[in-house]
Amino acid sequence: MSAGQLKIATTAHLELINITGEIDRIVAGQAISSGIVHLFNPHTTAGLTINDGADPDVRRDILHGLTHMVPGNLNFHHAEGNSPAHIMAMLAGCSLTIFIDNGRLQLGTWQKIFFCEFDGPRSRSIRWKIVADNQ
Amino acid sequence: MSAGQLKIATTAHLELINITGEIDRIVAGQAISSGIVHLFNPHTTAGLTINDGADPDVRRDILHGLTHMVPGNLNFHHAEGNSPAHIMAMLAGCSLTIFIDNGRLQLGTWQKIFFCEFDGPRSRSIRWKIVADNQ
Amino acid sequence: MSAGQLKIATTAHLELINITGEIDRIVAGQAISSGIVHLFNPHTTAGLTINDGADPDVRRDILHGLTHMVPGNLNFHHAEGNSPAHIMAMLAGCSLTIFIDNGRLQLGTWQKIFFCEFDGPRSRSIRWKIVADNQ
């Protein structure tokens, strides 16, 4: 088992940031062949998701769709004014569980891992834990 | 490894119930330093989520947003009339994976764990499993 | 630990396919009493979810609700035209973590596991990993 943290500086209010390279490097740096990497986002206005990384328009369309689903002009009470970000955080989810085989992250052909900023820009971090399979 | 169940009595039709204290006590009662707690909700009209616990208005706004996203007056076919609850259950998700370090639950500063009641009031329960890290 | 893949042929554009029987057989075929089964969907226009399996109208209503939430006529940019499927994939989530006790999958009374096709029909597959509890 090993664990750590990855710092992420977001630059926009709404943003999907591809962190696959960083996670892949962390996994490749472990001396394990097979296991699981768990990612956990400790923020309440951000999330983690896996989606298409080939066309940046998919990321743009996901944020466009979320903004349509959770419009800012609903009758929200939370005084900070970022209730849509809290709702989007629920929709995205705050953790990911990804398999490791042959020492590498096992994603689908088009899949990339994204940190979801819903109330940026901010200094963020996510936590990871890698668990080797018991044989 | 240890496992168990937590009973939850909900009191409203739509409700986010903070169960962080209960989960924290379960984790603190284990003789493990580092690991993972898995939570699983066995109901199809409820869910589990992590979000802000400081301002009750965030919980109110999340339920307000979900009710906007999944209005009750769509052309639903399910005869029990609780299709919005089944959809909200999908949106929230039915499990959570949270890290344990130094014998304690590792949540972000503002994060609390919520049981999401979408079709209450009812007698509910969730299941937990704590897995110590293999060293 | 054991791992594998399950092939799924979808037959409609939007479809929730009950794969509980297949996962249950995989779990029952392992020589473990207690543990966790992790399921991972490697596609970016599909997902995995757990919901009611008793009334097919629930599945129909979930897809109806998702189509209401993510209408196809938003101003999407992604040229493939399947942005709603990418958004629904995010909403459903791409992995599931389910407990195993007494050698069997532990689902709630009404719960079944569904592969969510959001851009079919296609040939799909999901990956599974079963981890026995360390005692």
Brief characterization of the structure:
Three copies of one chain form a homotrimer. With 135 residues, the first copy, chain A, is α+β, with helices and mostly antiparallel strands.
Features:
alpha+beta, 3 helices, homotrimer, 8 strands, 135 residues, 3-stranded antiparallel beta sheet
- Evaluate the radius of gyration of chain A: 16 Å
The SSE order of chain A reads EEHEEHHEEEE
Q: Can you tell me the residue ranges of chain A where pLDDT is under 50 for at least 5 consecutive residues? A: none
Structural class of chain A: alpha+beta
Please estimate the helix content of chain A.
Answer: 10-25%
Global outline of chain A: elongated
Binned strand content of chain A: 35-45%
**Quaternary organisation:** homotrimer
Average of per-residue pLDDT values of chain A: 96
Put simply, the count of helices of chain A is 3
Strand tally of chain A is 8
- Largest interface pair: A-B, 34 and 34 residues
Strand order of the largest sheet of chain A: 1-8-3-5-6
Describe this structure as you would to a colleague:
The structure is a homotrimer of 135-residue chains. With 135 residues, chain A is of the alpha+beta class. Helix content of chain A is 24%, strand content 38%. A five-stranded antiparallel β-sheet of chain A has the order 1-8-3-5-6, with helices on one face. The first copy, chain A, has a three-stranded antiparallel β-sheet with strand order 2-7-4, with helices on both faces. In chain A, a hairpin with a 2-residue loop joins β5 and β6. At the A-B interface, α3 and β8 of A face β4, α2 and β5 of B.
